[in-house]
Amino acid sequence: MDIKGQTAIITGGASGLGAATAEAFAKAGAKVALLDINVGVAEQLAAKLGGIAVKCDVTDEQSAADALAEVHKTYGVGRVLVNCAGIGPPKRIVGRDGPMPLADYKKVIEINLIGTFNMMRLFAAPLSKAEALAEGERGVIISTASVAAFEGQIGQAAYASSKGGVAALTMPAAREFAQFGIRVMAIAPGIFHTPMLSSLPEEAQKSLGASVPFPPRLGRPEEYAELALFIVQNGYLNGEVIRIDGALRMAPR
């Protein structure tokens, strides 16, 4: 798909992977809509990119529906959705204070997995009735999994299972939406320099980067964005989870 002139919706668009993706898409000529719970920060970036920012809680059915309705009203039907909204607080299943509070586990699953599914279903419904483009394609959905989906570390039980769910959702969604010409892909990043990691001391960040075989550094958000843009442009990519991790395979801890 040629993204130029098309509407691209990015959740978690105010920072990190989402912000980098919005910048790459805008540079390629897309009309970008940044959906984020932190709408104030999203508005600053949207103004810079000539796009729009919309407040959205991906876990809330009405909030998500209202956000997409606002995008459609401004730009028309969305052709690309990139799900970048997510959290990853570390916590052991059984720690020093006893078992992990169930509410903590539920929160990660709700944002990372249910939020992804919520946006996917609400985005695909109107898109399935939109006018088809070249070769019958109507649009693309890209979700964010993680290498933790495959090699979750100790303390990542909630995060890994949420991202494993995102990875597992990709193929059945791609098969179901094939009849509408909607492709579904997922990206599984390794250790990236995002707000989640920026809170760590610099030495800890360098140590993590050094654990990557090559290049021995943290991934850059713009590298995720470049892959997302490539997925949009390559019409034969469908139903797959692509790792972008510098050949990293996570150790137990």
UniProtKB/TrEMBL annotation:
Keyword annotations: Oxidoreductase
Q: In this protein, which residues make up the domain named Ketoreductase?
A: 6-190
Give the transmembrane ranges. none
Keyword Oxidoreductase carried by entry:
yes
| Listed GO MF terms | oxidoreductase activity
Keyword Magnesium belongs to the record = no
What family is this? Belongs to the short-chain dehydrogenases/reductases (SDR) family.
Q: Tell me what this protein is called.
A: 3-hydroxyacyl-CoA dehydrogenase
Species the sequence originates in: Pseudorhodoplanes sinuspersici
User: What lineage is this protein's organism placed in?
Assistant: Bacteria, Pseudomonadati, Pseudomonadota, Alphaproteobacteria, Hyphomicrobiales
